[in-house]
Amino acid sequence: MSVIPTSLRSRFVILIGVVLTIVGLLGYEFVQWYGDRITNQLSIGYAERSALYEKSRIVNVLVREVTLAQKMASSPGLKDWLSDEENVRERDAVFSELEDYRSFFRSQSYFVTVAKSGHYYYNDKLGGHPIGVPRYSVDRDIQKDGWFFTLLESGEPQRLNVDTDRGVGVTNVWVNIVVRDAAGKAIAVTGTGIDLSEFIHDLISSDRPGITNAFIDLGGAIQAHPDMAIIDFASLRKEASQEEQSTIFSLIDSSADTARLREAMAALAAGHAEVKALNISVQRRPQFVGISYVPEIKWFVMTFVDQRQMAQEPNTPAVGLLLVGVFLGVLLIVALLVDFFVLRRLGGLAAAIGTIGEGRYDLAITESSPDEIGHLARTLRHMADRIGAHTDDLERQVRERTRDLVAANAQLKALAATDTLTGAWNRRRLEEAVINEMDRLTRYGHPASLLIIDIDLFKNVNDHFGHATGDHLLCDLVAVVQSTLRASDSLTRWGGEEFIVLCPNTTLSTMTTLAERLREKIAQTAFRTVGNITVSLGVAECLSGETWEQWFQRADAALYRAKACGRNQVQVATGASPRTGAIPSADFVHLTWSTTYECGHTGIDVQHRQLFGHANNLLAATLSGRPTAELAGLIDPLIRDVVQHFQDEEAVITAAGFPGAAQHAALHRELLNHAAELVDHFHAGGLNVGDLFQFLADDVIAHHLLGADREYFSYLVAEQGTEPSVTPTLA
Questions:
Q1: Nearest by Cα to 211 from 305, 311, 308
Q2: CB–CB of 224/172 below 8 Å?
Q3: 288 and 336 fall within a common domain
Q4: Cα–Cα distance between 430 and 489 in angstroms, integer?
Q5: Do 547 and 575 fall within a single domain?
Q6: How far is CA 224 from CA 108, 172, 175, 216, 230, in A?
Q7: For residue 51, which of 287, 303, 306, 278 has the smallest C-alpha distance?
Q8: Could you tell me whether strands 136-137 and 535-541 are parallel, antiparallel, or unpaired per DSSP bridges?
Q9: 717: part of which helix (H) or strand (E)?
Q10: Does 211 share its domain with 356?
Q11: How far is CA 61 from the centre of its chain?
Q12: Domain check: are 368 and 516 in the same one?
């Protein structure tokens, strides 16, 4: 027998009960989670503020002591006496001054340790020892005296050290200041001390439960802590002799927390932050630690906040049970109201809907109230009357939508195969056609050729006229090319200003003729806004057995050669397939001088031709794999020649009154910066042939010598007798 309720009423009550119970439990968990989160945020903020507060306290106490000790160490009388320790008159005057300083120190104590004699002088408020008489002498062989020699040899001006003095038997936080003579030589250490117990009581101990303060040095050694057993006494000596120290890192439970603490300490010491707060585990207790750095004494102030003691534990179980009880009470009330006003009336409508499912639309619905259920009943009657008519109409709409989807799919397929800007094929469509043509070459021997078109100096169009004009030029170029092609030929936009023409059943000679015809037609066409342009073309016929990548690389290499040889020309690919990744030979790349490049100024034209020659020599040597020493003998003179040419050229155009002389000089500086990067790359152990060729052929020759330089041609004096002087020969 099934125990699952079948009525909507019972299921609704059970569902509401389950949902509200789950919500109550989730609310209970949320209260706990949110309480913990708030506690964490408050504790972290509390730890940060406590660290800053403790920092302000230590600054008020220790920094004052350090400053006063520094003043005492800089006393001229003290330095004079240290140079002649046996001088009684000066000794009495010095110790009289030191006694004055003692009255201002917190502990009313001072010490002086002389480097030359090793004498250790000490006096405090207790007295009991003659003033000006050494207590003992420090000895390098005595381990407890290591602090003195370590500090003198460290080069540091000052250092704080927690230790027990072996002679006077007091355990202090010692403020050690190095005294130097006029030549900068360390001649003594002087300072004061603060009783460690008093220091811990006044500056470290906290009457707040769960709060622990500590002072840590740059190396992590514990300098002050309520638990004196873990204080690292004599850190100065231990650090120098690399003895094991008691550090804060030894108290941390995980290496990850240790790394985070080290990172925070490094950031604070570098001045990147004033305070840091971390959530770490210390001695198996979760702690919030606030950290601040006191640069005057090179100590960190750390405030540890015990999470378990600081956490507030609200009475969440009782609150959760109360919420659940309220939800259940509301549930009962809502269930009764829903049953009376909704479920019973919906039961009658459910029976009527069942008759519609059986195909009978003569519904006997008596519900006529003006509320939503009554409106639903009237809607059901109206729906039953129209279902028959709507069925035929829906079938008709399905047929129409199917036809629309077929048409849309065909349109999407066409869009997926064409370039959205120009309407030419895209790469995907081209690669599909290439596979078919290469298969026909393999099966039937039908030839196939392609050519790559690249608009010369297209970047100048975008720079001078804007990208919108560049887009119009691409569209107009496609129209010109397509008007010249056969119906079987295809035009693809390969990317940017590059296009590929694929011609089935076409040999290399026919393709070369087509390429030349295209070049001439494009050169003779006046395009809107930009006027006449030129293109460079690379032609290649597919060879038996080669891959699409090899075929394309040969055509691309031919295009590259056409651009390098002056643009506005057709270059035909070699017959053999190049190896993938092979470097072109020295004969493959060559920069050709043309008289059309001349500006009319003899000195400038001579230098331009010689730069062509130097560039060709360097390219040939690089591509031929010449030794590094030989390349260095070509690169460095070439760069010097470029520098000399730019200087001469700037003098000529300035004298000629060229208004853009300053901007032209700025272009020179950019090219020289790029040249310096190439030279550094070469001397670092390698020279990228592509970068070298782009700099010489594209940046210096094409864009600058044959591009930017033409702007000043009209300003130069044509007669040689009036030309400014230019050195006609480069080294």
A1: 305
A2: no
A3: no
A4: 11
A5: yes
A6: 21, 11, 14, 7, 9
A7: 303
A8: unpaired
A9: none
A10: no
A11: 43
A12: no
CATH for 659: 1.20.120.50
Domain holding 661, by residue range, is 597-731
pLDDT tens digits for 162-176? 888 888 888 888 999
What would the pLDDT profile of 115-124 be if each residue is shown by its tens digit?
999 999 999 9
CATH for 244: 3.30.450.20
- Looking at 314, 342, 372, which one is the last position of a domain? 314
pLDDT computed for residue 6 by the predictor: 60
In sequence order, what are the beta bridge partners of 541? 449
Give pLDDT, residue 362.
63
In contact, 534 and 567? CB cutoff 8 Å: yes
661 and 607 inside one domain: yes
Instruction: Give the sheet arrangement for strand 490-495, strand by strand.
Output: 490-495, 498-504, 448-455, 535-541, 570-572
Q: Tally the domains of the chain.
A: 4
Helices 508-524 and 467-484 meet at what angle, rounded to 10? Answer: 130
Indicate whether 592 belongs to any domain: no
More confident residue, 720 or 435: 435
Check pLDDT > 80 for residue 412: no
For 294, residues 6+ apart whose C-beta sits below 8 A from its C-beta are 55, 58, 59, 62, 63, 300, 301
DSSP sequence for 117-129: T-EEEEE-TT--S
Q: Which residues of 590-604 are buried (b: 16+ CB within 10 A; e: fewer)?
A: ebebeeebebebebb
pLDDT digits (tens, 9 = 90+) for 644-685: 989 999 999 999 889 988 999 998 998 888 888 878 877 776
Nearest to 553, CA basis, from 592, 593, 580: 580
Pair 430, 523 in one domain: yes
Same domain, 301 and 444: no
Q: Is residue 407 part of a domain?
A: no
Q: Using the 3D structure, point to which of 314, 343, 368 is the last residue of a domain.
A: 314
pTM check: above 0.85: no
- Give the separation between CA 606 and CA 303, rounded to whole angstroms: 77
Residue 589 lies in a domain: no
Joined tokens for residue 565? 């040889």
Q: Is 666 among the domain residues? A: yes
Residue 656: Cβ-neighbour burial (10 angstroms; 0-12, 13-18, 19+): middle
Please give the C-alpha separations between residue 143 and each of 88, 155, 166, 409, in angstroms, as whole numbers.
31, 20, 10, 91
**CATH number of the structural domain spanning residue 353:** 1.10.8
Question: Do 388 and 463 touch, CB atoms closer than 8 A?
Answer: no
Judgement on whether residues 637 and 544 belong to the same structural domain of the protein: no
